[in-house]
Each structure stands twice: as C-alpha cells, then as structure tokens.
Amino acid sequence: MAAPTTTHAENTRDTADAVDLGPAAALSCRECGERSPLGPSFACQACFGPLEVAYELPEGDPEALRRRIAAGPDNIWRYAPLLPVPADAAAHPSLNPGFTKLVKAENLARELGIEGGLHIKDDSGNPTHSFKDRVVAIAVEAARAFGFTTLSCSSTGNLAGAVGAAAARAGLRSCVFIPHDLEQGKVVMAAVYGGDLVGIEGTYDDVNRFCSELIGDPIGADWGFVNVNLRPYYGEGSKTLAYEICEQLGWRLPDNLVIPIASGSQLTKIDKGLRELVRLGLVADKPYRIFGAQAEGCSPVARAFKEGRDVVRPVKPDTIAKSLAIGNPADGPYVLDIARRTGGAVEDVDDGQIVEAIRLLARTEGIFAETAGGVTLGVLRKLLASGRIDPAEETVVLNTGDGLKTLDAVAETAGPSAIIRPDLDSFREAGLA
Ligand SMILES: *Cc1c(COP(=O)(O)O)cnc(C)c1O
C-alpha cells in the first residue's frame, strides 16, 4: 500500500471544521478504524490503510425518508441525505447524473433460462455515457469544499471524459491523465470538453503512480485528483447505484448483483450502499450475493478468488475491456471479502466471450454496451452454466458504459448484411427478401 502523502492543501488549510459535506462526519480507516477530519486525504496516518467516509445518517421513520427521496430530483441528488455533499448540492452546477434505467430484460432472461427476473442497470444513459459521472459529481462537491481549482484524475478512459465534462460545467480547470493507447472514442470524449488531456506512455498503473507523484509535488498541490486525494468521496458516488436499483425494484433487495471490477471501488461501495439501506430500514433485510466480473486479460481479483488467496497479485493487462484494465486494483482485497461474505464469486471471461455478450445484449434488449457490459453479461452466462447463480432467483447485471465508445470491439463482427445497387433485383440477389 502506498505511503500517505501529505499535500500542500492539507498543510495550509484548516479543513477540520470549515467543511460542510452534509451527513459526512469524518474519514475513517478501513483497516484500523482510526478517525480523521474530513479533508483531501486518502490514507490513514496511523496504518496507511485506505480512508472512507463515515456518516451520521438520518435516523427515524424510513417511510418519511423514502417520501423525501421520492420527492427529490430524478438524479443522484435525490439521495443527498445519504451522501457526503452539502444539503444544497442539487443547486450547484452539475451534469446531474443518475437515475438511469433499470431495464427488465425479459427477452434476454428467456434466452438464458432465467425465471426469477433479470434486470440490466444501464448506466450508459449518464451524461458522458458511463457510470463515472456519478463518482465525479460527488468528487466535485468535495473539491469545491476543499477549495481546489483544478480537477484531475488517472483514468482508463471513461473517468477522463467524466472529469473533463464535470469540470467544464462547474467552471473548474481540468487536466487528466490516460494511457496513450486508449480507444479513439474515449480519447476524443476526454478532450472535447476543453480541458487538458495528457497521454502517458505506459499502463493505467503507470499513470496512477505518476499521479501520486504529482500530488506530492508542489505542481499538484492545489489539484483535486478525483480518484486519488478525493478518492474517499469519489467512491461514495457508487452507492447511488445501490440506492437506485433498490428504489427501482420498489424498495427491495435483489438476490444477485453482477458488477464489473477495475479498481474494485464501485463493487465495494455498492455493497456499502445496500447495507446502509438495510440499516436505515429503507429495504427489508435478506441475503444478497455480490458477483465480481473481470476480463481474463486482466483478472487479478478473479484469480485470487479461484485460488482461495487473500492477496491480489498484480498483472499486466491485455484485454479489449480497457475500462477495466487495472492490473493492481486498490480495492481488490475488499472485493474478495465481499464476494466471500455474501456467498458470491469473482469470475472472468475472455475477449471472445465479451464480444459475444455485447452482441447478445444488443440483439435481445436493444442495449449497446461497451466492453465492460460484455464482461458482466459474459460472466453472468458463465455463472449460470456453473450453477453459481440460480436461474430461479432475481439478478441485476450492470452495464456501466456505452458501446459507441468501444466500437472497435465489435466492428469486425457487426457490419452490413449486404452492399447492393439501389434496385430490387440486386436486393433479391442478396437473399434478404
Ligand atoms: C471505471 C469503470 C468501472 C469500474 O471501476 P472501479 O474502479 O472498479 O470502481 C466499470 N465500468 C466502467 C465502464 C468503468 O469505466
């Protein structure tokens, strides 16, 4: 684990009392439980463990809280009472992500033999077409509270676009870092919002290491890196996926969730969100299983799960699922804990299975997923085949991004059925009549 970096921002600002992030009360260490004041820090001063947000959540009548949420806007700000944001966050300039569709996938369920219900939580409908808009919106609120004027990140592609767009809307400067060899759709989307985009010759893990150095340097002292020094806040944005899924199911828990893993942050925070809903009485308690999904070309967590290890050994990524290509996932060990504790699993699929799954989802439900959605659906198929997921149970599969950003993955297998002259004979000859 990286040593905690004391930033210039921490040295010069008194962030302890001045910060209003709503119900967020403190940061607490996931390893030793040590508490520290809300600020732009991400590693425990006592044991170097990762920090997360601790809350004083609203107690009392769950029905009143459900009504308050339902009366809120159709985006993540409806859950502001459960997030580390000021009460008036909805009034700040934001892309207002969230409340994406939960699609009842009846055609796909029939094809896969699922009788207990199958839903796709389709986060391609977010403003920059991936789930990352959720986490960035929360990080922007933290950046604002801590007085950062430049927004930054290390990204596998989608995050760079989400940060660029959110910064543009919030009137902040942005400078984001990606591996130089990403899909064109992601590079263009990261650059078009007018901030600075820097391609780094290396993998995501190299990019991430570079960003940690930058934070320690005076250059980066006043920069809010959404997934580094703002990571505890950023992560909380993923809880909104848990809230939405349960609210859209009529305030109840599903039996199984299939969630993609890059750093593992999203998966761990969805679990945190589900447990909060139970604790607040917003959903009835019952067992649920969390399944993590990786691409075989970058599956350090799936390997550790299958080999019964607690230690996640870093790998060098080689997969078409570039948004998930993190070889050294920060939250890997916590993902293993959650999969084991809930009776779930972590599984992986190869690139061919990813493409097949993208096409299957498009053909059955009219949803065009990016490679990460191919990973989750591919993994669902594998888990059904191995009997780990029971087709009599209700399952929610996440699609976290839009297929338009990863066209290359399917370009070879999806093209015109025929190219003809504009006359009827030519069409008849093509055998499609
Ligand atoms: C970033 C990302 C994820 C998951 O990210 P975590 O680091 O595990 O939180 C999943 N899907 C897509 C499309 C992403 O861009």
Structure description:
By secondary structure, the chain is of the alpha/beta class. The protein has a domain at 102-128 and 237-409: 3-Layer(aba) Sandwich (Rossmann fold). Helices cover 37% and strands 15% of the residues. It has helices at 8-12, 62-70, 106-112, 132-146, 158-170, 184-191, 204-216, 231-236, 239-248, 265-279, 300-306, 332-342, 351-365, 371-385, 408-411, 424-429, and strands at residues 24-29, 35-36, 51-55, 101-104, 118-122, 150-154, 173-179, 196-200, 223-225, 256-260, 289-295, 345-349, 395-399. Strands 4-5-13-10-11-12 form a six-stranded mixed beta sheet, with helices on both faces. The protein starts with 7 loop residues before the first helix and ends with a helix. Bound molecules: pyridoxal-5'-phosphate. Pyridoxal-5'-phosphate is lined by residues 130-132, 158, 260-266, 323-324, 370, 372, 400-401.
